[in-house]
Write a structure and sequence with these properties.
CATH class of the largest domain: Alpha Beta
Distance between the termini: 24 Å
Largest sheet: 7 strands, mixed
Oligomer: single chain
CATH architecture of the largest domain: 2-Layer Sandwich
Number of strands: 17
Number of domains: 4
Structural class: alpha+beta
Shape: globular
CATH topology of the largest domain: Alpha-Beta Plaits
Strand order of the largest sheet: 9-10-11-8-7-12-13
Helix content: 25-40%
Length: 394
């Protein structure tokens, strides 16, 4: 708790300016002095922070035929790799890995923001175990915490974070999309983003298509050929392709499933600052299978863990820089990227927009419905934002 105390105090005082927080000298207690009507909310925030700061353990079973002492002797390189991939996603390096001999398991301990990357850590341990195993094995993951439950109930990120090819179920669209994306990441060096990561990977919902960033436009032909070969192996038929100025869409069909389209996008595509519309769209899985922010939008105020949490709760912080002419001319981004894409689909807006945009929202016939449904839940944490770079102004 000591490590996060100052930041936590600032966040609470944004919400409750009259609240006083003073820990004891040993940091074993937190004394809260606040108006009575704010105590319950503050205590809920404290409990959530304590839950986040508390360590969580997950056990990954070591397959038969692999020696536990051998695994223990090889943990050094694994720890180094895990530290590197966590640093790439700008998460705090609060984790540990060890072998539990009596349970024939590798134990992963995570704390704080590292919890949002637990699936990544499990995926990397899976890759490591597979390299030592003399045969194929079924991955065994156990743990009682929330993060562990998410890894088990929605294993999609863990499967993409591992270099081990997932098991394929012929004729199943979700399985086919998993195989295509795993191939794009691990065989062609692409990064995947958009609705596939937001809805399919994080929320466990259906995805319409796949958006991926090419390593470079010069590799378009080789990536396209590799993707078509993978799709053919999965029983899909190539149905066409369409070229756009900054992307190339390849389409496939399969028996008994909806068509699948893959957008191969120029990694240097120019977009208006801050280069991402909101927190719910600011997540990608890069060419190393690491979940990271797609753009630096939000800075330290909206972390990767925040973006994932917003997606899970179907909410978003709008990042659009309304002072940039490219965001206000040519198309109506308030209608297209805030109203239609999120509010009309039941997502909750977490930050108050600048006055002009708020007045337009309030003038829309749907505004009262959004209010009644609790979709306009403005968090004081995000009110002091500099729209030029989406940093806090104080």
């Amino acid at each position: 708790m000591k490590q996060h105390r100052s930041q936590f105090q600032r966040q609470l005082r944004l919400r409750h300016p009259r609240a006083g927080l003073q820990p004891d000298s040993k940091y074993t207690e937190l004394v809260v002095s606040a108006p009575e009507n704010a105590i319950d909310h503050i205590m809920n925030q404290v409990r959530q922070k304590l839950a986040s700061a508390s360590p969580e353990d997950v056990l990954v079973g070591i397959p038969s035929g692999v020696s536990c002492p051998l695994m223990a002797s090889k943990l050094g390189p694994l720890r180094k790799e895990l530290s590197q991939v966590l640093s790439e996603s700008y998460c705090e390096l609060l984790f540990n890995v060890c072998v539990v001999f009596e349970q024939r398991s590798v134990k992963i301990t995570v704390v704080g923001e590292a919890k949002c990357q637990l699936a990544l850590l499990v995926g990397r341990v899976h890759s490591f175990l597979a390299a030592q195993a003399p045969h194929q094995f079924t991955l065994s993951v156990s743990g009682s915490g929330r993060a562990a439950n998410e890894v088990n109930t929605n294993p999609r990120y863990r499967q993409l974070a591992s270099s081990v090819t997932p098991q394929h179920t012929p004729g199943d669209r979700n399985s086919v999309m998993l195989m295509l994306v795993h191939h794009l990441i691990w065989a062609t060096g692409c990064s995947v983003y958009g609705g596939f990561v937001r809805d399919w990977v994080i929320r466990g919902k259906e995805a319409n298509d796949i958006d991926c960033l090419l390593p470079s436009m010069s590799q378009l032909d080789s990536v396209k050929a590799s993707l078509i070969g993978c799709a053919k192996h999965l029983g899909l038929q190539w149905t066409g392709e369409v070229g756009h100025p900054n992307s190339y869409m390849v389409s496939f069909s399969g028996a008994g499933m909806a068509p699948i389209s893959v957008d191969l996008v120029d990694p240097h595509l120019s977009s208006p600052p801050p280069h991402c519309e909101c927190s719910a769209a600011n997540v990608k899985i890069n060419e190393k299978g690491v979940m990271a922010k797609k753009a630096y939008a939000g800075g330290d105020l909206v972390t990767l863990a925040d973006c994932v949490s917003h997606i899970q709760s179907k909410s978003f912080v709008c990042f659009i820089d309304w002072g940039c002419a490219a965001n206000t001319t040519g198309c109506d981004n308030l209608v297209r990227r805030v109203k239609r894409k999120y509010l009309d689909r039941g997502w909750s807006l977490l930050n108050r927009l600048p006055t002009t945009q708020m007045q337009r929202l309030q003038g829309m016939p749907e505004y009262r419905g959004w209010q009644k449904a609790g979709q306009l839940h403005f968090d004081p944490k995000y009110t002091g934002m500099d729209w030029a770079n989406v940093f806090p102004t104080n």
